[in-house]
Specification:
With about 600 residues, this protein is α+β, with helices and mostly antiparallel strands. Helices cover about 60% and strands about 10% of the residues. The chain is built from 16 helices and 12 strands. The longest helix has about 100 residues. It is rod-shaped. This is NF2, moesin-ezrin-radixin like (MERLIN) tumor suppressor a.
């Protein structure tokens, strides 16, 4: 079996020498690339090719990582790729990852591609629980990740369930609380809605600014033993070297900042850290694995060089990159402001159009109501006119009857009745006739008054008819669209935009205003930090009642203890530095 494998490797080597090329697959955090390389290529040749393909200029943070035995290693730039302990089976797979982390992401990361690669790598480490993240910070980080992917929150688009397929929280956090996926999504979406207006780059930078304050951010851990044989962990990061207990990766027992280390020596698998203060003892430790020792040495040298580089004046290339980045960000900010103005004008125009449509519908309804009222008024007027005519006819008829009764009374008076009985009867009839005449006169007068009232009602009905017609004409004239009816800052309903109204000149005043905004952001940094802490505390309070205490991991318990004591990553670092300076004798 071994001879067959050796024969196969020899055949592959022979073919490679004949072809003088080999294939490499480069895996980044969001894409895979394949390249054909020459056999003689060194690590730097392949690294430069990949960086050009990515458009990456901040190359000093990155490298090629590969797996070897039970650890990882990095391709050396001055050594041939095929001379490393990589699998020779083509395509050779290498991981393009950040090897060194910045002290301050916002100040050091210039290019958007650099920031994006760091964002993806840190996000992956948090989700894989290689970096411990408390639950409240996990929710806030998840909301910025959603903002970076989906843009501004829109309740009509981002409905419940749109994050169902997204991996946003560490499994440890999900298992720690009695919360359903919908409850987690609701918490994340609540924070996500507050990030409106942030671009993808802004959201990713906010993510990194929060993540860089986590205790395990940017630290590479290695198992070591001190000269007493005690098992410890060595942490290497951008700030210095840290010594931990194996069961506590959050709080270091001792730290050596890079500016307080005089020398790091390596001999016969033993490391010696010599502090700048000669009164402090040399700290010695060793690791049993040669490959791990080489990796520790590489990371120490690289992080120390970057530590010194940050404190020197930027090179011409970095200054040019920062200037270009500032100009690009200023251009994007101006473009974003222009788009926001266009969006605002469009919204104003749409609101004006909606108002006009609503007003038109309202006027149409009023016109219909006025028309109906007019028809009812006309019908009422016709009825009143008919009643008035009938009343006049009745009054005329009653007048005729009253005249006839009066004539009859006169005729009866003038008629001679000889007999007393006839005279009494005639007197009685005369009395009845007089009473009837009086009644007829009263009825005639009442009918005349009723006729007058009906005439008055008819006149009022005709006046109401004239007013209804006038209102209908007025409503009809208002419903006709006129440009003067649109507000000065709105647009007509056709939503056409003039290029003159939406043009924007990039003048010195804009640059001055942008500079003032940048200065204002610096001044408000402390207030934002306070707001961030308040936001994290609020999230923690909301979900604390649903926590399952029995599922807390050792790191959760350690983090809670640190929080109760008021300690953080930076306060721990300052504390151990003060203790290291004041301590005499052995450190560990």
């Amino acid at each position: 079996m071994a001879s067959a494998l050796a024969a196969k490797m020899g055949l592959n080597s022979l073919r490679r020498k004949q072809a003088k090329n080999f294939n490499v697959r480069i895996t980044t955090m969001d894409a895979d690339m394949e390249f054909s390389c020459e056999v003689k290529w060194k690590g730097k040749d392949l690294f430069d090719l990949v960086c050009r393909a990515l458009g990456l200029r901040e190359t000093w943070f990155f490298g090629f990582q590969y797996d070897v035995e039970d650890t990882v290693a990095w391709i050396k730039m001055d050594k041939k790729v095929l001379d490393h302990d990589v699998s020779k089976e083509e395509p050779i797979t290498l991981n393009f990852l950040a090897k060194f982390y910045p002290e301050n992401a916002e100040e050091e990361l210039v290019q958007d591609i650099t920031q994006h690669l760091f964002f993806l790598q840190v996000k992956n480490k948090i989700l894989e629980e290689e970096i411990y993240c408390p639950p409240e910070a996990s929710v806030l980080l998840a909301s910025y990740a959603v903002q970076a992917k989906y843009g501004d929150y829109d309740p009509n688009v981002h409905r419940l369930g749109f994050l169902a397929q997204e991996e946003l929280l560490p499994k440890r956090v999900i298992n720690l609380y009695q919360m359903t996926a919908e409850m987690w999504e609701e918490r994340i979406t609540s924070c996500y809605a507050e990030h409106r207006g942030r671009t993808r780059e802004d959201a990713e930078m906010e993510y990194l600014k929060i993540a860089q304050d986590l205790e395990m951010y940017g630290i590479n851990y290695f198992p070591i033993r001190n000269k007493k044989g005690t098992d410890l962990l060595l942490g290497v990061d951008a700030l210095g070297l840290h010594i931990y207990d194996p069961d506590n990766k959050l709080t270091p027992k001792c730290s050596f900042p890079w500016n307080e280390i005089r020398n790091i020596s390596y001999s016969d698998r033993e490391f010696a850290i010599k502090p700048l203060d000669k009164k402090t003892d040399v700290f010695k430790f060793n690791s049993t694995k040669l490959k791990v020792n080489k990796l520790i040495l590489q990371l120490c040298m690289g992080n120390h060089n970057l530590f010194l580089r940050r404190r020197r004046v930027d090179s011409l290339e970095v200054q040019q990159m920062k200037a270009q980045a500032r100009e690009e960000r200023a251009r994007k900010r101006v473009e974003r402001q222009r788009l926001e103005r266009e969006k605002h004008l469009r919204e104003v125009a749409e609101r004006a159009r909606d108002d006009l449509e609503r007003r038109l519908i309202q006027l149409q309804d009023e016109a219909h109501m006025a028309n109906d009222a007019l028809l009812r008024s006309e019908e009422t007027a016709d009825l009143l006119a008919e009643k008035a005519q009938i009343a006049e006819e009745e009054a005329t008829l009653l007048s005729q009857k009253a005249s006839e009764a009066e004539a009859e009374m006169q005729r009866i008076k003038m008629t001679a009745i000889r007999s007393e009985e006839e005279r009494r009867m005639m007197e009685q009839k005369m009395l009845e006739a007089e009473m009837m005449a009086l009644k007829m006169a009263d009825e005639s007068e009442r009918r005349a008054m009723e006729a007058d009232q009906l005439k008055q009602d008819l006149q009022e009905a005709r006046d109401s008819e004239r007013r209804a017609k006038h209102k209908l004409l007025e409503i009809t004239s208002k419903s006709t669209y006129s440009p003067s009816a649109v507000p000065g800052d709105a647009m007509p309903p056709d939503l056409s935009f003039s290029r003159e109204n939406l043009s924007f000149d990039f003048k010195d005043t804009d640059m001055k205003r942008l500079s003032m905004e940048i200065e204002k952001e610096k001044v408000e940094y402390m207030e934002k930090s306070k707001h961030l802490q308040e936001q994290l505390n609020e999230l923690k309070t909301e979900i604390e009642s649903l926590k399952l205490k029995e599922r807390e991991t050792p790191l959760d318990i350690l983090h809670n203890e640190n929080t109760e004591k008021g300690t953080s990553k930076h306060s721990n670092f300052k504390k151990v530095r003060r203790e290291a300076r004041s301590r005499q004798g052995p450190l560990i």
